[in-house]
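Quick one: Helicase HerA central domain-containing protein from Priestia koreensis, structure tokens please.
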Amino acid sequence: MNNLMTLEQQVEPALNNATKFMGKSYLHELSNHKIVSVAKDMIYNESNVGRYIRLFQIEKIVYDKNEDINEKLVNVYNALGNLNNSLIVIIDSNGSEVNFYLGTRSSQVSIAQEIMQKSMKGNFPGTKLNKLKNSNYTSLINNVISGNKERLRRTVVSVSGIPAMKDTEKTTFVQGLEKLINAMYGEKFSAILIADAVSVDQVSEIKQGYENMYSTLSKFQKVEYTAGKNESLALAEGISEGVTDSINDSIGLTQSYTKSQTDGTNNSSTKGSSKGASFTPLGIGGNAGNNKSETFGLNHSKTFSDTGGTTKTTGTSKTTAQNVTNSSTTTEGSSQSFQVHIEDKRITELLEKIDLHLDRLNSASDLGLWHYAAYFLADDEQTATVAATNYQAIIRGTESSIEGSAINVWNSEHINNLPVRESLKQLQHPKFHINQAGLDLVTGSTLVNTHELTIACSLPRKSIKGLPVVEMAEFGRGVSLLSEQKQMHVMDLGYIYHMGETEQSPVQLDINSLAMHTFVTGSTGSGKSNTIYRMLDELMKVNIKFLVIEPAKGEYKNVFGGYQNVNVFGTNIRHTKLLKINPFYFPEKIHVLEHIERLIEIFNACWPMYAAMPAVLKEAVEEVYRSCGWQLETSMNFNRVAHYPTMKQLVEVLPRVIEKSGYSEEVKSNYIGALVTRVKSLTTGLLSNVFVGDEVDNRLLFDENCVIDLSLIGSAETKSLVMGIIFMRLQEHRMAFAEAMNVPLKHVTVLEEAHHLLRRTLDVQSNESANLQGKSVEMITNSIAEMRTYGEGFIIVDQSPSLLDSSAIRNTNTKIILRLPDATDRILVGGAAGLNEQQLNEIAKLQTGVSVVYQNNWLDSVLCNVHEFKSPKPYSYSSDIKAQLRERREVASFVLTSLLSKKYNSKLLIEALNENSKLNTMLKMQLLEEVANNFSQLSVLKKGNEAMLGEVFNSYISAEEIIAFASTSYTFEDFDYKFNKAIATYIGHHEFKEHIQECLMIYYCKLNPSFREYYLQWFEHKQGGVII
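--- reply ---
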């Protein structure tokens, strides 16, 4: 056993050196060693820095949710390291905001710059890099190295060690640099991360060094000792010296930075007897004997290495030896022996670490190897140390123990503070002189492969102040069709938007496909209106007409109203031309009963109807048609020129229909309150001038470019009804004047805020309702789907898809989706566009003007940055109210004077009556017929028809407004004064004002029976007049 102990003592120095090297124990003592000055030719300044260094400020980072970020960083760093370039990462925090820089140091810096830019763009599209100018780089590096001018010597703390994953399953990544920045929020500090690429040849040499070390140590991992009485003579010392040399050579091969020179003479002499151990292929054998030996030798060796890491060794040696051995052996006839198997655990662990290093080097053969270290700088030692320890804790993982980790501090008082900072200023690892573990010149760096480097130099995974980090889903990079179809006309909607960047790849929509309808949605301010502007502008270029029905904002008239070929109509004469439309009119080719069905469905869709209300309303509508001479079964009219009812006639007929019904008084009262009140509201206020018999030419509304502004109507129900009636009239116009079926796109209708007309309803039924509103909405959506055969396309626009009937989304071929914050809305419309979960979430973060575009014949949805519409022509409309009132006064005075004087020009009177859109249709037609036939006495002038004459007067003079104004009087004299004063605003001081007043009051009694008593009192006061 003593022989074995002697062998262990002789191997011990080499084993200690290997242990120190494998554990990188020297890294803990770097601050105690002298630093090597930077070579003059490696000092960069503003004049030459551009030849070696490129630095980019990262302004935004974009990640793809479906891709491994670390693996993409491996691509970037490996591309950079393939040409032996250095990677530089700089973090600079002023306490509130952090700037993040990525760069390279290279002798081929232009190529390295291009590699970094292209690789970042390819792996992290959308990430914004801003190249620093030389002057900006100099300013940055001076600030990082020196800090504030008052504190010229910043503390430097280095971090060395092998980074590793904490979560080997990679289910989560918690080692992003945002953890460091968040931990140091409010502190001023800087960090420089340097990684120098190791060449392939160097990797091979390093690998060979580890292999040699393994081969040498493995001989002594397990030994076998055999003891007996036999003795022999052997030399063990020479063997132990050979082992020491071999291990030291291996250590040298694993270093990239070495420089040494050795000259020496050795002289040794040994006499006496000794016991030792001899190495054999089978183990260690014990022996004893006497020997005498003398050895003399000369050796000379030099080793050189440059900073690039290439090691080259040349050496010569000469050895003269003389060996005299005297030995005698005595062997006894009988012997006794035993064997002991011993494993050195230290060697076993060293061999296991070598295996791990070799695995890492094998990986590096494919992905690259780097000399890496991190350096933290701050104005005080505490801040720099805290930043360094936090960083070290973040990057260390389950396999970091393979090699030692160290933190070294050079505070402002340290003798090497300035040289260290000077090396860092050149973005180089500081180099140190040491003399241990067989090493001479070292740096604070450790060897890491590219996978490990992506942990040490990872990018922030979450946004920090100064650097937004965005996760984005990937969409199609271009429009790909399921089947190639010839597209006659296309519109340029915008450019492809990919991972936060606009690409010069156009997104084009097939214009004819718009006949299959389009759905556009997006929250307020997302760019929805601009998208529609762009589409309408493109349609105008190919001479396709449009109709915009806008119930809110009134923007379209201020964008397109100024174009000469665009007509604008509204509900307020002060702002636009008046929209005049008669809900009861229909084209000749449409059957009256078809029209009635559609009209009732529109009422059902826009008003809450229950029980028998739809039936009662339908009966009243049929009655007003009959009163105008319509034969409902044949759709023929008794009059030579067909007469159409008006809303005022429906107001008069509806109460009578309800009264004739067999319902209880309570039900009748409820129906009158619900139906009559709603219908009557359509004959007052703004709508009193809209729902009239003298309507705008349908060809102007439906065959030309037209904008209908309904934004000034306050009631949502009323907006819905007006939109529904316009839609019904459009449908009947297309059906009546269709030249063929399945024609290409000819006209597009934009339904803004479409939920007013296509509101989503619950699919429930009650005892009194069969979901009438839902069925009516379904009828409208079906009509939209069917109208494509006439070349009519609809663009359905709404900011909340969940408010719309699902069929309105389902029956559209083109979907354009802008930013939608509500998850329900995103799922509803995104599912119709075939989006996955990540893409659905992306909709909530879309920038203004960016939309998801999808057509049913596309392979993938794409993101489109819609072109900004830059050619608005605001609507200019001047309304001279005084002139209009003056003209109206003249017309009213002329008509009333003509009728009351019984002297009139038939042609002029007929023209004036035709222009009166407020007069009851039946009464109007009767008057026109009598005037045209020169009746000796008009019916309205016959005795007893004062109410009829009052109705004619009321179409020019509002009896309701005048009586409401005059009724505030306390005396009849005051009443007459106010009445005449009000009349004068309509017709001036008219010679027949008393007759006009009396007829208006009689007509008003017909409308409001409660006024009858007041009229009788007034009549008695006047002591004359008509008794009613």
